[in-house]
Amino acid sequence: MTGLSEHLASETLALCRIPSPIGQEQSICDHLEQVLQVKGLAPRREGNCLLVPGATRIALVGHLDTVPAFPGDGPPRIDGGRVYGKGASDMKGGIAVAVMLLSELPADHRPHLILYDREEGPYAENGLEPLLQRGAIPALDLAVCLEPTSNALQLGCVGSLHATIRFHGRSAHSARPWEGENAVHRAGKLLASLAGTERRAIRQGDLTYYEVAQVTSAHGGRARNVVPDLFEMNLNYRFAPGTSIEQAKRRVLDLAGDAETIFTDLSPSGMPCAANPLVGRLRALGVDVEAKQAWTDVARFGAHGVDAVNFGPGNPAQAHQVDEWCDAQALATAFELLRRWLLA
C-alpha cells in the first residue's frame, strides 16, 4: 500500500470498529463530530446527522448506518491490501475519503459535507429527508453520494417497491386436503411467473437499467399436518428511471392478481443527470460511466430538484455481504480523482 492508501485504510478501519447498524448511529456520529472539530471544520450536528459548510455548490454525501452484523463476519482488520469490516464498502471508506478531502482542500474549493442516519431502512424513515425539508442543506449544483461504485460514475438509480402479498385459504387436516384450500398452492402461479421472468432492460440515453421482481421472504402454515390457510411473501420490485411510483404499484397489482396486496415501502427512481456540467467535468477525468442498478438517495435529491450522482471507492458487490471489504488502493484512487475534480 502507498502512504495515502495506508492512511485512508487506517481511517476506514477506525470507522468500521464503531458498529453503526441502522438506528444505532450515535457513537459513530460522536466520533466523526470530534474528528471534524479537531480538523477545524466546524460541523453542525442535527440529531445523528452532521453538516459541514463548504465554499462551493457541491456536496459530498454519506450515510452513517450499515446493515446489521451477519453471522460469519470477521473482526474489523486490514489484510492483503483490503479493509474488512461492516460498512467498509457501503460506505465508511467513502466517508473516510470525504473527511480527508475537506481537511486538505483549500477553503475556497471545499465542498459541503452531509452525513446522515437511517439510510438502510424504509424510505420514510431516512435521516436525509428532514434535512432537505427544513432547508438545512444549502442550494447545490450537484450532490455526490459516496455509494460503492468501484470509482465509476453511476448515474440515476432504480426505484424500489416492497409489497406484502397475502394468499388466503382454508385450514384442513393434511390427510383430507379437499376439506380446505391450500394458501401456499394458491401462490404457485405467481411464483412460477416470477421464476420464469427475465430481467427487463430499459434504456435511458447510453445507460441500461434492469427492472426485476423478486420474492425476498415468505412464510405460512400452522403445523406440519395442517393445510395452511394463509401464506404471505415480500415482493421487492426494482424499476427503471422514468417509471413512476403509481406505475410500479400497478405492475405489482397486475402480478398479484386477486391476492391481497399491501405496499410497505415506496422509493422513487432517480433520473440520470448526464447533462450537468459538473458531471461532465468528472467524466472528463476518464472514469467509467454506468447506470446505478440499486436505489440510492440520488432519487431523494432529485425529488427536491437537486442533481446528484453516485461515486465512491467501495465495491458494489461487497455491499451487504458477509465479511465486507474495501480495497485500500481504491480509497486512494477515489481521493485523487475527487481532489482533481474539486480543484479543476
Overview of this structure, please?
The protein is α+β, with helices and mostly antiparallel strands. It has 2 domains: 3-157 and 270-343, 3-Layer(aba) Sandwich (Aminopeptidase), CATH 3.40.630; 159-267, Alpha-Beta Plaits (2-Layer Sandwich). Helix content is 30%, strand content 26%. The chain is built from 10 helices and 18 strands. The strands form 5 sheets. The chain has a 6-stranded mixed sheet. Strand 4 (77-79) and strand 5 form a beta hairpin. The longest helix has 17 residues, at 88-104. The two termini are 27 Å apart. The mean pLDDT is 97.
Average per-residue pLDDT, rounded, comes to 97
Main sheet properties: 6 strands, mixed
Q: N-to-C terminal Cα separation, in Å?
A: 27 Å
| Highest CATH level, the class of the largest domain | Alpha Beta
What fraction of the residues are assigned to beta strands by DSSP?
A: 25-35%
Discrete helix count: 10
CATH architecture term of the largest domain:
3-Layer(aba) Sandwich
Q: In sequence order, what are the helices and strands, one letter per element?
A: HHEEEEEHEHEEEEHHEEEEHEHEHEEH
* Rg, nearest Å: 22 Å
> Strand sequence of the main sheet, in spatial order?
1-2-6-3-7-17
How many strand elements? 18
Question: So what's the overall shape?
Answer: elongated
- Any idea what the CATH superfamily of the largest domain is called? Zn peptidases
Helix content: 25-40%
Weakly predicted, low-confidence segments: none
The figure for the number of domains is 2
